[in-house]
Amino acid sequence: MEWLSWFGELVTMNVRISRECAGLCADLSQKYLTILTALELTNFCKYLGHHSESSCYDDVLKVCGDEVVQNISKIVSVGKDLSNGKNVELSILKTFNIKLPEIYLCLSRIAATYISSRDL
Fold first, then answer.
1. Is residue 3 within 8 Å of residue 41, measured between CB atoms?
2. Long-range contact list for 89-94, CB < 8 A, 24+ apart?
3. Which helix (H) or strand (E) segment is 94 a member of?
4. Residue 96: is it exposed, middle or buried by C-beta count within 10 angstroms (0-12/13-18/19+)?
């Protein structure tokens, strides 16, 4: 559950930056948090024991639906682009903040199920 707690903090930071910051500070913070969020979404797949993103996304699709999987995939892709130094439209990053709480709720359901089955 440690992963879930950390990801929840990231979601909170993303939402706060979009509401409370402006200008260059907000832009740089948003880029950095997108990279961290993408990394943590990838770590979630490893946490569940998946060796590939596609098999992880299949499990997420069963619980969360196609829209959540598409949003996760976009965040991971944009995070990789940012970490490789590519320029990304800031408007794209801001739309992620709207989706993050929904993603968090769904992934927390998956994590809870995973922990319950592991403890049996």
1. no
2. 90/27, 90/30, 93/30, 93/31, 93/34, 94/18, 94/30
3. helix 90-119
4. buried
Exposure string over 43-61, b if 16+ CB within 10 A, otherwise e:
ebbebbebeebeebbebbe
Domain extents in the chain: 2-119
Residue range 27-61, pLDDT digits in tens: 888 888 889 999 998 888 888 888 888 888 898 99
d(CA 116, CA 119): 5
- Least Cα distance to 107 among 69, 76, 78 occurs for 69
**What number is the average pLDDT over the span 23-30?**
81
Question: Please, which residues have CB within 8 angstroms of residue 18's CB and are 6 or more apart in sequence?
Answer: 26, 30, 94, 97
Does the structure show a pLDDT above 60 at 19? yes
pTM of the model: 0.83
